């Protein structure tokens, strides 16, 4: 049985109290809410901490509220199940419900939180093993080693960003609020992520994600598809989210984001540019999908399930499927099971 290491456990009841604890020693302090990622990581000795600060007792971090502009504000410790069960989220952001419902399994969604999913540790076949296995081949650079076993000649870590809510929230233009002892600041959710498997968040060690703000719907059509080996539990090896705004004939604006293909969520800039001002039809969708992998720089490596070459080809197929759903066209392939 894997056991947690010893640590000091603190349970603040206010944000002010929590950021005060965090400011004492940010480098050696971890935050926990649902614990579905942190506790297994600490048991496997991927992460350590002298102090763990629980956010579950802070009421103001939990819940869903209407914003003045008609959007929604979701507290960081709101559980994933609470989001998928909320009628306002279902009505305003149906594809976000699909994305959140695809995370892990029903039991873990009942405990896991949206803030935890945004800050999910990056993953890798070589990193996410028990300590004895990792030691036997020598630790990788994401831990205490000097080599990336995925790309041994590389000077960086290629661990994958796998938060399934992230691509859809980025496509919707969501922002987050960060709190520290110095006060609050807001930034676009997309700016939270860095393209580095080790330093994967721009959030400072002394900051807490307190909430997510999603703009009010403005006529967009949305879709989300996720690829994984099983229909539940497994982490995704690809997720595609899109939100499109059309005036009836042509595309005024569209966002296409990929997850689980690199150390950061990937925006398909060239595919987006290929669709602006054009109708979402068979031809334009086929072209935008064909360039989604190469133009966006999304090149899966051997750091997760399935062969990288096949995963790369599936980027094209899944982008096409998502865009066809946004356009209201007939489905040409079996949709993933997100049950």
List keywords for this structure.
339 residues; alpha+beta; Uridine Diphospho-n-acetylenolpyruvylglucosamine Reductase, domain 3; Enolase-like, domain 1; five-stranded antiparallel beta sheet; four-stranded antiparallel beta sheet; 13 helices; 29% helix; globular
Question: Per DSSP, what share of the residues sits in E-state strands of 2 or more residues?
Answer: 15-25%
Note poorly predicted spans.
Answer: none
Characterize the main sheet. 5 strands, antiparallel
The CATH topology of the domain at 61-119 and 160-214: Uridine Diphospho-n-acetylenolpyruvylglucosamine Reductase, domain 3
User: Would you list the SSEs in sequence order as H and E?
Assistant: EHEHEEEHHHHHHHEEEEEEEHHHH
CATH class of the domain at 61-119 and 160-214: Alpha Beta
Give the second-level CATH assignment, the architecture of the domain at 61-119 and 160-214.
2-Layer Sandwich
Q: Mean pLDDT, as a whole number?
A: 94
Provide an overview of this structure:
With 339 residues, this protein is an alpha+beta fold. Among the domains are: 61-119 and 160-214, Uridine Diphospho-n-acetylenolpyruvylglucosamine Reductase, domain 3; 221-327, Enolase-like, domain 1. 29% of the residues lie in helices and 19% in strands. The strands form 3 sheets. The protein has a 5-stranded antiparallel beta sheet. The protein has a 4-stranded antiparallel beta sheet with strand order 9-10-11-12, with helices on both faces. The protein is globular, with a radius of gyration of 20 Å.
């Amino acid at each position: 049985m894997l056991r947690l290491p010893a640590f000091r456990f603190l349970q603040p009841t206010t944000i002010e109290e929590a950021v005060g604890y965090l400011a004492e020693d940010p480098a050696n302090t971890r935050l926990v809410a649902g614990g579905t990622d942190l506790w297994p990581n600490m048991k496997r000795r991927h992460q350590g901490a002298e102090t763990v600060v629980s956010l579950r007792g802070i009421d103001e971090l939990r819940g869903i509220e209407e914003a003045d502009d008609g959007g929604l504000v979701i507290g960081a410790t709101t559980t994933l199940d609470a989001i998928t069960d909320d009628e306002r989220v279902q009505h305003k952001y149906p594809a976000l419900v699909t994305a959140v419902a695809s995370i892990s399994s029903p039991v873990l969604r009942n405990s896991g939180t949206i803030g935890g999913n945004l800050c999910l540790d990056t993953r890798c076949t070589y990193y996410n093993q028990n300590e004895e296995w990792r030691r036997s081949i020598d630790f990788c650079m994401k831990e205490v080693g000097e080599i990336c076993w995925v790309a041994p000649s590389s000077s960086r870590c290629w661990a994958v960003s796998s938060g399934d809510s992230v691509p859809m929230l980025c496509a919707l233009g969501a922002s987050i609020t960060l709190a520290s002892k110095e006060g609050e600041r807001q930034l676009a959710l997309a700016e939270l992520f860095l393209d580095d498997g080790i330093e994967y968040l721009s959030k400072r060690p002394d900051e807490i994600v307190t909430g997510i703000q999603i703009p009010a719907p403005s006529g967009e059509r949305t879709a989300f598809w996720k690829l994984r080996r099983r229909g539940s539990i497994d982490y995704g090896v690809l997720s595609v989210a899109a939100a499109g705004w059309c005036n009836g004939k042509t595309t005024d604006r569209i966002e296409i984001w990929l997850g689980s293909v690199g150390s950061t969520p990937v925006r398909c800039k060239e595919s987006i540019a290929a669709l602006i001002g054009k109708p979402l039809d068979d031809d334009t969708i086929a072209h935008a999908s064909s360039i989604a992998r190469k133009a966006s720089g999304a090149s899966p490596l051997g750091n997760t399930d399935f062969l990288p070459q096949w995963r790369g080809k599936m980027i094209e197929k899944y982008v096409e499927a998502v865009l066809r759903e946004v356009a209201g066209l007939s489905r040409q392939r079996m949709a993933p099971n997100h049950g």
